[in-house]
Amino acid sequence: MDDLAPAWLPGGHAQTIWAALFARRQFAPSFNKVRERWCAPDGDFIDVDKQNASSPHKPLMVLFHGLEGSSSSHYAMAFADWAAEQDVNFALPHFRGCSGVLNNGPRAYHSGDHQEINWILSKLRQEHQQVGGQTMVAAGVSLGGNALMRWAGEHGKQALNTVDAIASICAPLDLTESGRAIGQGLNLQIYTRMFLRSMKPKAMSKLVQHPGLFDVDKLRAARNLYEFDNVFTAPVHGFKNADDYWAQASAKPLMKQIKLPALALNARNDPFVPVLSLPQQNEVSSSVTLWQPEHGGHVGFVQGSWPGHVRGLPDAVGAWLMRTSGVSMSERITLHG
Questions:
Q1: 270 flagged as catalytic
Q2: Fold of 2-174+251-324
């Protein structure tokens, strides 16, 4: 991966931040969203943004966003751009409360939300089959990638009845180690503060909807994701505390049970996914392919001369998913060296 890292953008932090702040401008006009609102099994709702290919029979790519992400995230627009170029149907389901509209129920979303993943993928598969579509693949970014891998581990061979191949991108597959990393040093000052700026107001809005849902004083005092998860995420979603949540929701312990083709892509210089926490081949099943390039940051993978671009990520991951599913497509670039 060294030869793919631009000299003008050294280091995991720079690669992460540049992609998040500046790459969005490249794709904003090209994501032709059509929004659908789905009623959830528990009576709540989610919003799903879709982009149609020239035919509903074309393959369907499903993308699950990361923590506080949406269809406006830079990686979402890059994947939508790839899907439009390759004439692939594209769907981005928003986790609850992430579409710009607060959901109604007391729950939000979390890193191990495999039951939500299962409902969404099953519904999309059914819709795709009803219009004559066959190939359906899914990718998840960061939190969404862990939840997707967790789903694949939970469902084993049955997952093949729903999707043909999956990929996780920069997923914190060991939530305990990643949680510790993001709560320290520069990570705490940059990324944790950014996440809490949106997560805390959403939680407070939940409290208005559902009085007594959590201890408001403790939430206001939360200064890192561990404290936030301990007050809100863990108890609201049925976990004892943050430690229990991080342990139970991590996908890594279940990756030996994955039976469908799966790609786990993690840059080794990701600021808050420690390299020592990344899975090794003996910790996953033979169905799992590990790509662990030296560079890329957290969902960065910037390439090219200034000002660079982030299309290498969907080009490589999308091509892997399609090729693995038996769909012939051009692969512009590989991120695994």
A1: yes
A2: Rossmann fold (3.40.50)
Residue 248 pLDDT: 98
Q: Which of 195-209, 241-255, 273-287, 294-308 has the lowest mean pLDDT?
A: 294-308
Beta bridge partners of 49: 35, 92
- Six token digits for residue 8: 């003008």
pTM as predicted: 0.95
The one-letter amino acid at 209: Q
Is residue 110 among the annotated active site residues?
no
Alpha helices in the chain (DSSP H): 12-22, 74-86, 114-130, 143-155, 175-182, 185-187, 193-209, 216-221, 225-228, 234-236, 242-249, 312-324
Phi/psi at 91 (5° precision): -135, 135
Check 99, 298, 309, 315 and give the catalytic one. 298
Gap between the Cα atoms of 267 and 288, Å rounded: 16
By DSSP bridging, strand 89-93 and strand 34-39 are unpaired
Give catalytic status of residue 142 as yes or no.
yes
List the catalytic residue out of 71, 142, 178, 277: 142
DSSP assignments along 115-154, one per residue = HHHHHHHHHHHHHHHHTT---EEEEEETHHHHHHHHHHHH
The string of pLDDT tens digits covering residues 319-329 is: 999 999 988 66
Q: Residues, the chain, total?
A: 337
Q: What is the DSSP letter of 50?
A: E
Q: ∠ at Cα 315 (254, 60), nearest 5°?
A: 65
Write down the domain spans for the chain: 2-174+251-324, 175-249
Catalytic site residue from 155, 270, 277, 315: 270
| Main-chain dihedrals φ then ψ at residue 166, nearest 5 degrees | -135, 165
pLDDT tens for each residue of 233-263: 999 999 999 999 999 999 999 999 999 999 9
Q: Which helix (H) or strand (E) holds 90?
A: strand 89-93
